[in-house]
Design brief:
Elements (H helix, E strand, L loop, with lengths): L2 E5 L6 H10 L4 E4 L10 H4 L9 E4 L2 E4 L1 H11 L10 H26 L8 H31 L12 H15 L8 H12 L1 H10 L10
Parallel strand pairs: 1-2
Antiparallel strand pairs: 1-3, 3-4
Length: 219
């Protein structure tokens, strides 16, 4: 099996990056420098015409979109239990993963890259504070999921095994500090993501991507 992961430091590609690192399988991490526009190069668009990360290439075949990549990795490494196998628990975990990817993530994009949604400066200026408030509420929802897992004596968000929800929770919480949402606003969530960051595989990926957990100006 030949695996390559195309990732951008600090992006949602962090999630499959962590899962691959946890798997122990050999893989080639291929950095895409978004700030330099490498995602728009002809070479990269030959891999993913949409010019997005992540992309997982398995034996020469590309898989795009984070939910599809996570499901594929879960099937490649079933012994690691990235997602639950019990049908209802699995459906609930995938539901949360989809929410993170199709709701929370795009809300942050409205904060970080408002130019993607309007070419009018006054609209772009209005998008940022409005979506910061939405994102703050979503981090509150994420903190509630952490509390529910703790109340159920679950070590991780989807059960006994570390999985994509935990890695995505770290990514989204880290982005919150970029949006100016202080860690103190969601203490249970921050205690959880600190535990995630301390996992050896996560720590290795954070070092490879050169990530700082708290991006607040005062940090």
């Amino acid at each position: 099996m030949s695996l390559q992961l195309y990732f951008a430091p600090g992006a949602c590609s962090f999630v499959p990056h962590v899962l691959l690192e946890m798997s122990g399988a050999p893989f080639e991490p291929c950095m895409v420098k978004l700030h330099k526009g490498e995602q728009n190069s002809d070479d990269y668009k030959a891999i993913n015409p949409r010019g997005q990360v992540p992309v997982l290439v398995n034996n020469g075949q590309a898989v795009t979109q984070i939910v599809a990549i996570v499901l594929h990795l879960d099937q490649l490494f079933p012994e690691l239990g990235f997602l639950p196998t019990e049908p209802l628990a699995r459906a609930r975990a995938i539901s949360t993963l989809a929410w993170m990817n199709n709701t929370v993530h795009p809300t942050f994009t409205h904060i970080f890259m408002p130019q993607k949604f309007s070419d009018q400066p006054e609209v772009q200026a209005a998008l940022k504070p409005y979506n910061i408030q939405l994102f703050r509420g979503m981090l509150g929802e994420l903190q509630s999921l952490v509390s529910q897992a703790s109340d159920s004596s679950q070590a991780w968000l989807s059960g006994a095994h570390f999985g994509p929800l935990d890695a995505y929770a770290l990514t989204l919480t880290r982005w919150g500090t970029i949006a100016g949402i202080a860690p103190e606003e969601h203490p249970e969530l921050w205690a959880f993501v600190a535990k995630v960051a301390a996992h050896p595989a996560v720590a290795r990926v954070m070092a490879r991507e050169r990530l700082q957990l708290n991006m607040s100006p005062a940090a």
